[in-house]
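TL;DR need structure tokens for one chain.
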Amino acid sequence: MLSERRLEVLRAIVQDYVGTEEPVGSKALTERHRLGVSPATVRNDMAVLEEEGYIQQPHTSAGRVPTDKGYRLFVDRLTNVKPLSGAERRAIQSFLDSAVDLDDVVARTVRLLAQLTRQVAVVQYPSLTRSTVRHVELLALAPARLMLVLITDTGRVEQRLVDAPAPVGETVLADLRARLNSRVVGRRFADVPQLVQDLADGFEPDDRPSVQVVLATLLETLVEETEERIMLGGTANLTRFGHDFPLTIRPVLEALEEQVVLLKLLGEAGDSGVTVRIGHENFHEGLNSTSVVSVGYGSGDEAVAKLGVVGPTRMDYPGTMGAVRAVARYVGQILAES
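>> reply
TL;DR here they are.
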């Protein structure tokens, strides 16, 4: 176990390196921080930290930089999540409150995260597998052609055309709409098939084939739309950190282009607390020089999706964690109120 003093030295090294982008030496540490010990003692502490694998010496520089292990200890034991200022919180709320629909909420969230953290922002659309039905609408477009509109509790809207085997009268349509909503509103997607399996039995024999087609389309929609969607933004921010990536930034960009990689990255986030994956803790080799800060968001106690940012390991962890957590909270509030 490291002593409290050496933990303080490590904290100071991380803070200085993130702030200055320059390897940190013992003389600079004693000048910038009130460590209460001599430069010689700091040099000794840095030697121990290096021996333990928390810092390393890049090239022939006299200074030291944190390793993945050093950042991990910093995040786990030394960092306090930085709260946003009142002005920042008001700006977030105002920006997100202006969204007109779910697509706009996600797009604004991506822009906001990228601007606040100056990293790459990744936002997952609310998962239908965790969603509940808010409303099912049926509209007559022609005597035998209908539109089915499925609205989720997260504001997601799915539309499908239904070609019925025979004309559907307005009375039957209204009856089906009412019965359908009485059974499925507020229920999870996974429960819907069982809830509607005998619904057609309550209609006249001549109307049942059309009702069955509507129900089949509804169930197909539930199955089809379980594929998850991701929105990415702020990739250009990585160009500011070119020197933070060994050799080239290309592996990072290639990894970010793969949706399955991003989904897996976000999938590692917890439903409530902020999750930080540093350097080689990331499963994808192309992201071994990055850190991923992510969290779940939702309209209730359970997260319906995840959001986060990807950036170099030399990252302002307290500020980034605070921004990610705050934005997730506001998005959850908007979904709950929508």
